[in-house]
Amino acid sequence: MKQRKYPILIIISTLFLCVFVNCSSFNDILDTEKVEPLQTEIKIQIELEGFDSPEGLSIVLMNYLENIRIEKEFSGLSVVLDSLIPGIYTVTISGKAYDNQGQLYYLNGGLVNHPLIKNNETIEIAVSGLKISPLVFKEIYYAGSAPNYFRDQFYEIYNNSDSILYLDGIYFAALYPAGATEKLPVWPESDENKYVYTDRLWKFPGSGNEYPLKPGESCVVSQFAANHQLDIYNPNSPVDCSSSEFEFNMNNKNFPDQPAYDMIHVFYNGSSAMGTVPQYLTSVFGGAYVIFQIPENVPYDPVNDKSLQTRDLSSSSTKVYAKIPIQYVLDGVEAGHNETMVKAKRMPVVLDAGMTYVGASYNSLGVARKKIGENEDGTPILQDTNNSTDDFERGVKPMLRRYGAKMPSWNHTLR
Amino acid sequence: MKKIIYILIIPFLLLSLENIRAQEMNHSPAAVEKMKLDQLWHKTDNAAGIFFDGAENYTSLNMSYNSIDGNFHRPQQGKKENIWGFDAEGGVKLDKMYLWGEFLYSRNAIKDANYNASIIDPFRGMPYFVADTNISNWNNQHYELTFKACMPHLNDYLSLGLAGSYKTSTGAKQRDPRTENYLMKLELKPSIVYSPSASHHIGLNLVYYSLKEESNMENINTDISQTYYELYGLGTAVIGLGSGRTTNYVGNNIGGGIQYNYTGKVNVLFSSDYSLKVEEVEISFTTPKDDSATKQALWKNSLYLHTSAEDHAHYFNVEYTRRAIDGIQYITLRDVSEKYQGWISLHKNIRSTYENQFLQMGYDYAKNAQNEYKWLAGIKTGIKEKKDVYLIPRSEKKIKNAFGEIHGKYNFNLSDKLAKRLLTSVSFLYNKNLSGHYLYGGSHPEYPIVTKLEQGDFDYLSSDFYSLHITATYSQRIKKENKINLFIQADGIFSKAQNTYFNDRSNLLLTLGCNF
Are A91 and A42 in contact (CB under 8 A)? Predict the structure, then answer.
């Protein structure tokens, strides 16, 4: 009898030992070390011809999750950063510079969501450039208004240059995924990060010079170009969009075509048809918006050219998305729920190194590009450093043609 | 779940019936309390030593209602709390075995709790959860079944024992962003006692428990997204907007204890326990993401001295507990390559540490009256220290308090006929803050998590306060020949803060029960 009881103890003790020894995650956690600051060297390679030195370039490291910002100027081709907390960083190298021929470029390069976890690591970052776009997003109102009205979304595009620009044929898209998420899609590696992707594509009407924007003029593109403050819509809405130049008309009988010009629908799920969705709603948490212009001599037909389509490879869905060549993007602005959603960026740093936000949905607030000066006629000069975290005022009451931006002469209200 | 509970309760009730048949002694509330004071091994995790306590057959059943109110509370506690409880406890000798068991059930209705949107108990040593600023009610239920079994002695030298417990809790926050939580804890403690002589006993026990809590957050009003904060310790938080997250907590604890007991003129028991717990925090079930983890080292030491004569008894105890938790944060990245692997954990570090130390000593003198005490008086004093640090960027929350308590109990013998007793007790505790500071050096010092939650928690924990605790328990047997001892108890605690941030907190507990 007594001998039979010893095995019970042995079995229980052995069970305990097995649990302890076999639990690898247990041991793994026990071995975790205390955090120590890191030192990292960043080297740059300027890929654009005609630029000899990194003069005027600065580097910004943002750890959005922990709200850490580190900024340094380049004096040579590398910079050493110390006292970094291990984490996921977005590294941006940027600056305005003239090339040998006197053309003004916006040089930038960077890494989105790059882990800095090793001490004494050296990272090489290629810096390329885009000509500074004279056409920029001036104000975006995407959040909607209480209680849950979203038809008052609008996007204002502004001529920030000193010459006349034409909207004709310029494309507009909100990138996929619609809302900022860490669950990003997987795109083909063969695309080599040369594209961004959208589920729906629009373009401005016109054959070349029908819709000019003079310096200091802006055009408003509304989801639904009506006075939203009317009782039949939502008196809580902060905006009257009836003077918009354009709208995204989805042929919804309940929200009929308004006097504003219709944007031309180009692409949805591999077709030029709009589909059955009754409105063009971008995320009320904030989308990633681009305008881009394809040169006349470059073919671009994502409906018929299958090489300009792709699936999300992380999904079994057969839905197809249109590819947008990054090199032809005029301006890009990424918006998200709040400051920490920059960890979920959809847009490459070369288009927008940051993210803007209003902190909630249906709060009647928008984002507006900062004014840094005035033209002689009183129209604004707007800030464009390719970083919407810095370039935009957040949480502003939406307003069409803020800062005295002018209405183009072809606006329907002036006819 | 209910079936499991019934299966576990039924044997316990059968044991209780066994006690109704077996009882000879008066089990008034004072007698049961004195019996527990005398049981030193029962205070340890070693079930094999219970026989050396001179264990008795007894059963205690009670139902209680507890009402708590007042603003002197931690920010995550409810302003009000109503708790219905049921407790069944008993021990029985079966041949050469001794079995002890307890079943606890409580239903907590917490009113106006703040800064907690995802965990049933925000004070259980887990700093990683979700908080919001929508003051909300919580409805929680707890079931806990505990047993200790002292096996028949193997020989003159060795005894074996096994203790265990199974606990389940459910919790539901009642306002968006709301959550529904399920917690389970299963614990086993095998033990052995080696007795080289009749006076000397050396004990050893192991402890293992497994813990799991699942938190599923959602918004009922899906039109309105809610702001919430993912907490990373001492005010460090990541703001979120939406309906929250699904969080899965999985913990394993392993440890052991040693005991030494001398029985003679003085009954001395020294117990030292050490355990290590690892608890991992994973977000989402569909695409799991390692978020954080804790590593907890718990060291508990106790020394009990007890002398007992026919008409009096002395009780002296010293306890020292140190709990050190390392807060570990993961650095993860979602794989967006064509080989898509979900979330990849790249790195982890200890980012914060949480240390609590507690030293207490107490002395009680009891004037005996058969198996009860006639009166009892005692003092207790101790020091509590908390040192929490977020390493980089550095934040600190450090608090040191000293407390002293004096208490007395008198057991009025109203009648011997039906063993009518009125047990009264009064205690007065004063807590004095010796030092403390909360310094936040991280980002977003304007977040309410810093300005309201952490600062408010510091203000509470560093408060000077006094507490008055009064209890009155009336008990009597149903009939002279019936050994069942019914009792009704009213218990009130009034705590008054000595600062301008808080007023007071009152706690009224009404209990109806019986011992046999």
Answer: yes
* Distance (Å, whole) CA A185 – CA B310: 79
User: Closest Cα of chain B to A84: distance in Å?
Assistant: 10
Joined tokens for residue B448: 């309410």
Task: Tell me if residue B282 falls in helix, strand or coil.
Answer: strand
Residue A15 has which token pair?
């069970």
The winner for highest mean pLDDT among A373-377, B330-334, B493-497 is B493-497
Over residues A164-220, the pLDDT tens digits come to 999 999 999 999 999 988 788 999 989 988 899 999 999 999 999 999 999 999 999
Measured between beta carbons, which residues in chain B are less than 8 angstroms from residue A32? 293, 295, 326, 328, 348-350
Per-residue model confidence as pLDDT tens digits over B37-74? 999 999 999 999 998 888 788 999 999 999 999 999 99
Pairwise CA distance, residues B57 & B43, whole Å: 17
The answer to whether B242 contacts chain A (CB < 8 Å) is yes
> In percent, how much of chain A has pLDDT > 90?
59
Averaged pLDDT for residues A373-378? 87
Q: Which tokens hold the place of A132?
A: 């500074």
Q: Which of A17, A314, A347 to mutate to test the interface with B (most CBs of B within 10 A)?
A: A314
Under DSSP, the state recorded for B34 is H
Residue A101 neighbours by CB under 8 Å, 6+ apart:
A50
State the DSSP string of B415-444: ETTTTEEEEEEEEEEEEEEEEEEEE--SS-
pTM of the model: 0.83
Every domain range in chain A assigned CATH 2.60.40.10: 38-131
Query: What residue has token string 């604890």?
Result: B253
Enter the ipTM.
0.85
A401 sits in the region (left: phi over 0; alpha: psi -120 to 50; else beta) called left
Contact A138, A391 (CB under 8 A): no
Chain B: give the shortest CA distance to residue A264, in Å: 31
Please give the CATH architecture assigned to the domain spanning A38-131: Sandwich (2.60)
Q: Which bin fits A66, alpha (ψ -120 to 50), beta or left (φ > 0)?
A: alpha
Return the residue of B nearest to A1 by Cα: B154
Question: Rounded distance, CA B208 to CA B357, Å?
Answer: 23
pLDDT band at A77 (very low <50, low <70, confident <90, very high): confident
